[in-house]
Each structure stands twice: as C-alpha cells, then as structure tokens.
Amino acid sequence: MDEEKKTPHVSLGEALLIVVILLACLGGCIIYGQMPPHVPIVLVFGLLSFWGRWKGFSWDDIHGGIVNGITPGIVPLIIFLLIGVLVSSLIAAGTVPTIVVYGYQIISPNHMLISAFLISALVGVTVGSSFTTISTIGIVLMTIGTLMGANPIYVAGAVVSGAFWANNLSPLADTANLCAALGKLELTDHLKNLLRTCIPTTVITLAIYMMLDGGGKALESNAFDLMVTSLSGSFLISPIALIPVAVILICSWRKLPAIATLLLGVLTSLIIFVVFAPGQGHLQMIPKIVMSGYVSNVGIETVDKLMSRGGLMSMMGSASMIILALGMGGLLVKLEIISTIVKNLEKFVTSLPKLVLSTAIGSIMVNVLIGEQYLSMVLPGETFKPLYKKMEIDSSVMTRTLADAGSAFNSLIPWGVSGTFIVGTLGLQGADYVLYSFYPMILPIMTIIVSIIESKKSKKA
Length: 461
Known about the structure:
With 461 residues, the protein is mainly alpha-helical. It has helices at 12-32, 38-55, 59-70, 74-93, 95-106, 112-127, 130-147, 152-169, 174-182, 187-212, 221-234, 243-253, 258-276, 282-292, 301-307, 316-334, 337-345, 352-369, 375-390, 395-407, 417-425, 438-460.
C-alpha cells in the first residue's frame, strides 16, 4: 500500500538563511564581481537543488518546481523574441529614424529627462504595455538623448519610470487588470485609489528629473541637416513610416493579444521596408533582419551604433537569463522558502500600516527572489487577502500596494523579467539605470507613507 508522501518541513530560520545566502551570492557576483547575472543564478540554482535534495525533496519534486517556475514565462519569452524582431523591423521600415528626426526638432535638450518620462508615460497609457513602450518610443528617446549629449543612463531611468507609471495606470495594462481582479474590484476603483500614491510620487520624480536636466546640447544646424540627409539616404523618412505605430496602437485599443499585436507590427514594418525603403534587394535582407537585427550604414558613427540593433539573437541572452531566474523562482516556491517567510510575516500584522508593510515586503521579496511581475502580485495578494478582510480594510488598499511594490518594482530587479528586458532592449551595458528609475523606486515608500496617513485619519474619525 502506498503511503502518502510527507512534504519536508522548512523552518523560518532555514528559509531566511537560504535567502541571505542567495542575496549575498547574487549581489556579490553582480555588484562586486561584475559578473553577468547568469553566473550567480546558475550557482544558486545548483545550491538550491542539492539543498532541497538534502532536506528530503525528491529529484522529481525539484524538477517539478523548475518546470512550474518556467511554465508561466513561456508566453513572455515568446513576446521577448518577437519584440527583438519588431525592433529591427521598425528600424528597417524607417519608423524609428522618422520619429527620431521629428522628435529631435520638438524636444529641448534642457528638458530631455522630463520629456522622456512624460512621453513614455503617454505612450504607455495608450498601448497598455511597458515592454512595447520601451521597445518603441524608449529606443527613440535613447537615440535622441544620445544625440543631444544627455547621459544615456539618466534617459533610460526616465523611460523606465514613465513606462511603468503607465503600466500601473493604463486601463489597457494587464497588470492593472490583474490587480483589480485580485481584489475583486472594478478597474476604475482600483485606478482611483492608485492616484493617492501616484500623484505625489510623480511630482517628486519630475522634480528630481528637473534638477538632473540641462546637461544636453542640440546639434548645430549643419550637423542636424547632415544627420537628416544621411538618414534619408538609408531609411524612409516619411509619415508612411509611422503606419506600424498606428497598427500597434489600434491593436492595443482593440485589446488584441500581445503576440498578435507584435506579429502585425512586424509584418507591417517589413512590407513598408520592402516597398518604400531606399535601395534594392530588401527581400533578401529580411531573414538577416529577423534573425540578427538591422545593421545601419549611415556613415555617422553615433547614429549607426544606435540604429544597429534588434533581431531574435539580440534577445537570446535575456531569454536565457529569464529561464534560469524563473527556474530558480520555481525552486524557491517548491522548497517552501517563499511561503514560509510570507506566512511568518502575518504574525506581525496588527494595524493597517503593518499590513501594508508586510504586503509590500512580500511583493518585493518575490520580485527579488523570483523576478516575475505577476507572481509578485498574486502570491502576496492571495496570502494577505484574508487579513484585509478580517481587519475590514478595503481591498483597494491591498491592490494599490501590490501594484506599487509588485508591478512597478519589478523593473528594478536586474535578473528579473522586466530588468532583463530593459537592459537588452535599450542596449545598456549594465543595470545602472536602476539608480535613476525614481518612480518605481519611490513608489513602495510612498504606499507605506500613505497607509500611515490613512490609518491616522481613520483613528480620528
């Protein structure tokens, strides 16, 4: 007769020790060892696997945890790869060069960072996807900023801040809808409550970017004319090149799935490239553009460097790291390290601020240890939801905390899904952009401050 399998017990002390070792390994290797995140993640992967086996988990349990961790990331991985193709296709079609030329004439070098934040936020609210925002207008803003002499790390931080501002507040964003669903709220009620933390954080973020702005300098008239002439010789610089952007916007408004939207954007871009782009032999170039990305030969070193990117291969490093990180996260869940720590947080919850703090810590911890945006909202949300109900606290407070400390904060984790995507798509050398992504950095602090204010008001009432 088969006996029921008993799950090994993991104590709080063991769980905390594992987390400390994990963070020390990741932080030490990435920050001090200057290693790519892949290396320490592989090391942690091995340590977790053998520790789990030593604790009494079977290899089937360990393999199952890895599979369960990676499975939710399969669709995002495909989206990653398609975004790589979209980027190279948009450059080939002239979409990115056209927006660069038009945008360069509008944006002031003295307000580059504020412009990057506001434009990214506006586009993000319209399309409802931080990834689409960063892979389209984000690349354009990085190009304009570089041409104006702005620090690319500053610009990247402003783009990320704007994109994830929109990711929280756009009615089209899947994360906003997921948060509302977790709290069983109408989307409008969730978004209204978010404004309590969003507005002050936005004001602070804009003030900081205003202080950092002003380091850029516009090109001289002759240099700008030379750039436009050079771009026109290699790319289609015309409103026609903006058609793929219109297609992506329409698909977003129609709430088409991300994969369908990206495929239509790629198809439209490649058709425009073949039909309208200067030169010949475009059909033969398509396989290389899709696989290896677009290679610019404008003749201006800075422009060629910025316009040579995209393709499936450009996302392979990011994709491999996401697979490793999600597998590591799956192990942490299967070995009950996450659940042990989160459940013990419940013991300290005696007030609204402490409940919000515990929820925020849970979301941030899932982000750091697993790196998956959706899980950083779902796991703490399902864990703490009964406590919000028991303490008669409106579920909109919970959903606001999940959005602020879960969804937005994910962009600050270099080995997480969003952080990996940002570094790969914007062509950054490292994760220094995190230091200048002020909006997602301030948001979790603001959500705790607001909860303290709300608690004091409720006591007075």
